[in-house]
Amino acid sequence: MPGQASATSQAPSMASPEAQETGAAPAEGSQVDAGAEKTGVPASPHQRSWLVRHFSLLLRRDRQAQKAGQLFSGLLALNVVFLGGAFICSMIFNNVAITLGDVWILLAALKALSLLWLLYFAARTTRHPRALLYHDPHAGPIWVRGSLVLFGSCTICLNIFRVGYDVSHIHCKSQLELIFPVIEMIFIGVQTWVLWKHCKDCVQVQTNFTRCGLMLTLATDLLLWVLAVTNDSMHREIEAELNALMENFFGNDTSTCLCLNATVCEVFQKGYLMLYPFSTEYCLICCAVLFVMWKNVGRRLAAHTGAHPGTPPFRLHGAIFGPLLGLLALVAGVCVFVLFQIEASGPAIARQYFTLYYAFYIAVLPAMSLACLAGTAIHGLEERELDTLKNPTRSLDVVLLMGAALGQMGIAYFSIVAIVATRPHELLNSLILAYSLLLILQHIAQNLFIIEGLHRRPLWETASEDPAGKREAEPPRRGSLLELGQDLRRASLAYIHSYSHLNWKRRALKEISLFLILCNITLWMMPAFGIHPEFENGLEQEFYGYRTWFTIVNFGLPLGVFYRMHSVGGLVEVYLEA
User: Fold this and answer.
1) What are the respective helix, strand and coil percentages of the chain, to the nearest 5?
2) pLDDT tens digits, residue range 382-416?
3) Which of 272, 296, 133 lies closest to 211 in space, CA to CA?
């Protein structure tokens, strides 16, 4: 019928941003058909099918070339990681044939190649007129870029302390050892600047070369992380020097290389040990950002695609109990952190401070777990629909959240085995056992709450689409201003009714999200900037051995810090979408 035909032709097509990434080929085919409709001359079926086949073939070839480039660059990174991993494993198990200096030479070569590519990418590739036509609004949020700059600066300071320590021992060390920290500082500075500036870019030129450069840099950062996790030579050297100083104090001569100025060396030692976890954290963040940039190479987005059109600003919206409880946990955590740090600055840490530290966690973790379970139950009672559209950024957020949780959970499981197999009935060991079990439960509950919240459609989208959908279903008609005002009043009343109907659920979700945000900030601050009780209590180190437990802690703690940071970003998004 004519009315149905007109209504059908006027219905707008609601395409998702992911569906708009297919490029210009299908759009040109639709423009040919639209031009034929406007002129009134029917297009030839043979001509139309030939155009469709031609553009479909071009689109298929473009996708095949993109997948081939991704496969080749991925294989390049895999081979580089295997080569570097073989060097590092050989250094660990046979440090006579392959020494730490050999590993440093390999990493210096990789950093030099990555540095050359980063400079070429910033100076040539991004200057091309058609290089940066599209930007991914979801990539590189401000908390990721801020963490990149923070941990990058701390890693540069770490290398400065390392250079100072080597200079103070220059009478018994090779001068070539000073070159490697300097190369790393230059590499970190250039990489941080490039990632901060171009983390949102979807590069459209020199795609294969860009993919290979990104994968080479990612492999270099991954090998730096593996070396930082497994290499304890600097820690052993500092410990040996402290033991030699004690032997000299008691009149025994040693052959250990000693510092010329003990006070200056102590500053370098303390700074190096305190900043050491930041280097591993920086490598993990760089790997995540580089992977997102690699996925965005050759990706085409619609010009009007935004992160969240109409996303409300971050406001408390009357939330009271969540911020108050979160601030209480934050203040208590800061007090425990300061007391533990003051005690850790002495020669030994008393057991009561370990008891205070783990007691704080045992008090906070159950509250966080209960809040997460309550928030998950409220999500199930909500009337908001699940967002089933394909979203690569959300999928990556979920993978990073689940992967980063394995760090602290792995340390907790190793602690449980060590405690159960030795002395589980002592007070401190019982606290560590309870802390480990509660930490595992809290990670599981928080992951469920955040993932469930990320897969819900934001309330502003559902509220804005309901009246619009009703208007689109009706045929367009002309009316007076009075009728228009009545329509707007009905839409406003419907929105107010929906808002009041979901008010208690939305308020509960906002209270829970704010409480969890402040608690995660507290639990991020304590392992990121302080001494680690997991390594200082001596229980697991005695059970597993120094090197094994050193590797486990250095593997798990940076992932745990990254998990808390990533959880804060996810919880902020859950809060805004509630």
Assistant:
1) 80, 0, 20
2) 666 566 566 666 677 788 888 888 888 999 999 99
3) 296
